[in-house]
Amino acid sequence: MEFGICFKGNVSPDRARDLVRQAEDGGFGYCWFYDSHILWRDCYAAIAMCMEHTSIMRFGPCVTNPDVRDWSVAASMFASLALQSDGRFDIGLGRGDSSMRVMGRKPANLARVVEFMETVKALARGETVTYPECPEPVQFSWSAGHELPVWIAAYGPKALATAGRHGDGVILQIAEPALIAWFVEQCHSAGEAAGRDMSNFRVMSAAPAYFGSPDECIAATRWFPAMVGNHVADIVEKYGADTTAVPHSLTAYIEERRGYDYNKHGSSDNPFLDFITPDIVTSFCVLGSPAEHVAKLKELPQAGVTQFNIYLDNGKEEEIIATYADVVIPEFVD
């Protein structure tokens, strides 16, 4: 299993450089950044900077979306980052949550997600393409021909099927093994039905990790199930509260949800956290002693996970990276 870290754009440049160097030296293979340009600084400037201070670590947005930039602008940026890092760039892609909703705009539909993915991948390869907002053909004559892996973020049946049919991998913002196993099965079934070879399909579990007592861990990570609740609320709105389209264990916990402040997205001081119980936090995150982290993480590959990506949004970032490097990651090295 691979390991990654994920930042918001509020980490200072000096600290970001130090953290990625520490993480790469400690065995982490990926660094992801939130792509929400209003809430935090633009992530691609930070990615370019961090690429210059690493040699093997891969980078990408977790996640971008089709409607926040012109597609040629996005593709040019992605292809440029791949070129200057010798191919160390992946794309995490979703419909658009915080970056769109904080502007009062709606997320994209899944068909547009797929069309965006296919367009930017083709442009990065150097192919000539047209797309809805640009009637004239577009080609990057300078393209180095990189093939950019795309991980599609998903929870609901249609998004999971889209990831399985079209993506190189899926991003699951959760670390609950039983739910992950269900999600992965949906992706694999859809991909196989479309005639794809799913043996190399990749699965990311993205969630906070924290060391300490139960009370300390829950206080530091209680924001996370509330963030997940935004996506679950979309599923409930689409399929109904009593849906059988997804496991009840995913939808039941948002019954008392009353709202969400996108200006406090992913923050422990978000005012709409009252519905989050300690059991949900423990289920969705990786918490406790190093031994407890190892025990839970060993369940994830059995559920289909190929990468655990730590959301470093809780404080103690240097300590978390160091403990994973010294104690946790060695348990997963063959």
Summarize the structure.
Helices cover 43% and strands 15% of the residues.
Provide structural commentary.
The chain is an alpha/beta fold and 334 residues long. The chain has helices at 13-25, 43-51, 71-84, 98-101, 110-125, 157-166, 177-193, 214-221, 223-239, 248-251, 278-284, 290-297, 299-303, 317-328, and strands at 2-7, 30-33, 58-61, 91-93, 129-131, 134-138, 150-153, 169-172, 202-207, 209-211, 286-288, 307-311. An eight-stranded parallel sheet has the order 3-2-1-12-9-8-7-4. The chain has a two-stranded antiparallel sheet with strand order 5-6. Helix 6 (157-166) links the parallel strand 7 and strand 8. Helix 1 (13-25) runs parallel beside helix 14 and helix 12 packs across helix 14. The longest helix is centred in the middle third of the chain and has 17 residues, at 177-193. It is globular. The model has no long low-confidence stretch (mean pLDDT 94).
Name the CATH architecture: Alpha-Beta Barrel
Give the SSE order as H and E letters. EHEHEHEHHEEEHEHEEHHHHEHHEH
CATH superfamily, please?
Luciferase-like domain
- Terminus-to-terminus distance: 10 Å
Q: Domain count, please report it.
A: 1
Based on Cα principal axes, name the global outline.
Answer: globular
Which value, in Å, is the CA radius of gyration? 19 Å
**Mean pLDDT across every amino acid position:** 94
Sheet of most strands:
8 strands, parallel
CATH topology: TIM Barrel
Class by alpha and beta content: alpha/beta
In the sheet with the most strands, the strands line up as 3-2-1-12-9-8-7-4
Question: Which runs of at least 5 residues are low in confidence (pLDDT < 50)?
Answer: none
Percent in strands: 5-15%
Helix run count: 14
**Proportion in helices:** 40-55%
**Level-1 CATH class name:** Alpha Beta
Number of strands: 12
